[in-house]
Amino acid sequence: MNNNEAIPVTISILDKEYKISCPQGEHESLLISAKNVNDNMEKVRKSGKALSADRVAVMAAINIAHDLVKTNEQPITGNNIIGRIDDMQKSIDAFFN
Question: Is the pTM of this model over 0.90?
Answer without folding.
Answer: no
